Amino acid sequence: MKCVMLGWRVGASALILGLVFGCGMPESDSGDDALTPAASGGAVAGAYVVDPFWPRPLPDGWLLGNVVGVATDSRDHVWLIHRPNSQSGAAETPPVIAFDTEGVVVHSWGGPGEGYDWGTQTHGIYVDHEDNVWVGFGGGLPYDPTARATTDNALVLKFTPDGEFLLQIGDFGVGTEGSDSTMFLGQPTDVWVDAETGEVYIADGYTNRRVIVFDGLTGEYVRHWGGYGNVPDDGPVPRFSRNAEPPSQFSTPHCVNGATDGLVYVCDRGNQRIQVFQKDGTFVDEAFIEADLGGDQLGGTPWDIAFSRDPAQRQMLVVDGGGHAVHILERGSLEVTESFGRRGRWAGQFESPHNLALDSLGNLFVGETLDGRRIQKFVLQSGNLNAMYSPE
């Protein structure tokens, strides 16, 4: 078990056009908390510059609701999924939107259609190796298997980039049957597709407490597991405490993603940790991400992860929705090397960052939920992550 402490201090960076995030952010008189990088060396966070003009203005007066998923495809198009019903005036905005590299909308679709169910609360988007688009539904309260928030958001859908329906996993209006069910989901939070096997991994997530795997073509059940690879347990969830033994089960597994070396990473958000597995669910490692939030409060909630674009994927980026920040981890050690971000609504600041994704050049895209309701682009100045992470 690894714990990594991040420092926080009073101060704020001066926000100007083309602000560079990195070490040595200047002090201010604002009294607002700002994140101090965990390490003074390294150029990862310092290499990102926010692009305040991306994306372009949305067409037809569209507004974004809570952004609850971000992904990229083989053409470096950036996809998001949001909740139109979470923002006044956004009801006519399609829930699924894709932008080209210039930030212009190139795809937009979503909503009820023939041959499939559409849940009431979107959550998560993934574009696989064949550019199929997977969307999920979840994130509602209460955590009750019989509540409408669960039964109406117990599915994952697969589409072509143009929005043509391909596959539905799960059902609409049916209770989850618990975390050991091989048929029904319980408010899934995230999706990853293994390009080698075509299997789809689902973090199943708000009502259930597991990772579950299906065949990505047929939707047939393959396997599932809980925290540490255990059989998932739907009993009462103990309140997380760093003074207690690490919980044996997941508490809101909020993301799942696979690296090129075959390891599978899960954001166990409620327990403020990342767990690592082999593809068969065998437990490998874990790390608790901790940040001093002041007032004797500790936080560090992993909401989503993405991997650097070098062949070995030596770095891992983690969005911390509770801390309104992005952390850069050494993937092999799971140690934080850099952190950037602070709470706010100016370009480059974060308000409840929910998801993140990288394009082929290593540019970073962060979607924000709750009061954020936007997507931001951070340009990698060194050009590509292969150069950034090359041996010295």
Descriptive notes:
The protein has one domain (2-383): Neuraminidase (6 Propeller). A hairpin with a 5-residue loop joins strand 19 (273-277) and strand 20 (283-294). The protein is mainly β and 392 residues long. The chain has helices at residues 148-151, 385-388, and strands spanning 2-6, 8-10, 33-35, 48-51, 66-72, 78-83, 96-99, 105-109, 122-127, 133-137, 154-159, 165-171, 188-193, 199-204, 210-215, 221-225, 253-258, 264-268, 273-277, 283-294, 297-299, 302-307, 315-320, 325-330, 335-340, 353-358, 364-368, 374-380. Strands 1, 17, 18, 19, 20 and 21 form a 6-stranded mixed sheet that branches. The model is unreliable at 4-44 and 383-392 (pLDDT under 50). The longest helix is centred in the middle third of the chain and has 4 residues, at 148-151. It contains 2 helices and 28 strands.
Give the mean pLDDT. Answer: 86
Distance between the ends: 29 Å
Mind telling me the CATH class?
Mainly Beta
How many domains, as an integer?
1
- Point out poorly predicted stretches: 4-44, 383-392
Number of strands: 28
Helical proportion, percent range: under 10%
Percent of sequence in beta strands:
35-45%
What would the principal axes of the Cα set say about the shape? globular
CATH architecture: 6 Propeller
Could you give me the name of the CATH homologous superfamily?
TolB, C-terminal domain
Tell me the CATH topology: Neuraminidase
Q: What is the chain-wise order of helices and strands?
A: EEEEEEEEEEHEEEEEEEEEEEEEEEEEEH
* Individual helix count: 2
C-alpha Rg, in Å?
20 Å
Largest sheet: 6 strands, mixed
The SS-based structural class is mainly beta
